[in-house]
Amino acid sequence: MFPPTLYGTLLFFYANHWHGADFASKASKRLQESLSKTLVLFYPLAGRLKGPAFVECNDEGAHFLEARVNCQLADFLQQPEPKLLNHLIPETDSETAQVALGSVILLVQINFFNCGGIAIAVSPSHKIADVTSLYTFARTWAAINRDEDQYDDGVGGQLALPEFNGGNLLPSRDLPAIPKTLETPSENLTTRRFVFDVSKMARLKAKIEGVVQNFIPTNVQLVLAIILKCAIAASHNSKPGTPIRPTVLFQMVNLRRRMLPELTQNAMGNWFWPLPVLFNEDETQLHELVSTMRKGLTDFVMRRQTDLKV
Hints:
Chloramphenicol Acetyltransferase; four-stranded mixed β-sheet; transferase; alpha+beta; CAT-like_dom_sf; acyltransferase; HXXXD-type acyl-transferase family protein; two-stranded antiparallel sheet; acyltransferase activity
């Protein structure tokens, strides 16, 4: 069970080179109107949390913020700093923390840059929405904002309506509540941004395919393996002379396509599971790491498919 103050965020950047003096006000009005229409379909997101496991669908709406960013969007994206990105998302706003965090389901912040560029932050409570649910909401809002009656998904298909059927598939149980806030010591934490070159990723995939027959890792698997390989090396180098120890990696698995029968990607809720994967001390090469990830996922699906029947 998630604490009420845990929100997931997607941040979208849009360039705009043609704007008038009233562009921001018109854009804000249009976004608010389309958001209201979207919340009719995603009605729990317009409700309020009432207790640790109950959402009151009272149509009170989202918490909507506007902000002005005193720089050009292109300059900001040239070398984005993680600390600066925090100013573009609503849950870091002090007033929002006082009046909205822990009760409002959906937080939205629209950021206008001097050039007319826009950054839109969408932050639903993790209590009722995982990242797939968030993508479903964002795609639908974008389609409605484009005034598309059929909710075109932008790539030639049509968006399906959200499905709120979790209560029927997985009946509620009495579970222990967790604290309203999770205390995380920040003095020993840091944030870094890594950019992976597409061509180099493709070469690494081809190299792995040459070692592990009939297997091309996904981008996520490859990036995780690269980071894990570096983390193992850093841990070993921090204590010279000590042997490399086994490592555990937790992967988040989307359960929708692994249920029996499968759920659609528009099924709203937290349909994911943290999958622990154990790596032995001698597994330090990229092809070994991605192979173990694949085996861990395959074994998980085979073990759990009986449990995941609905």
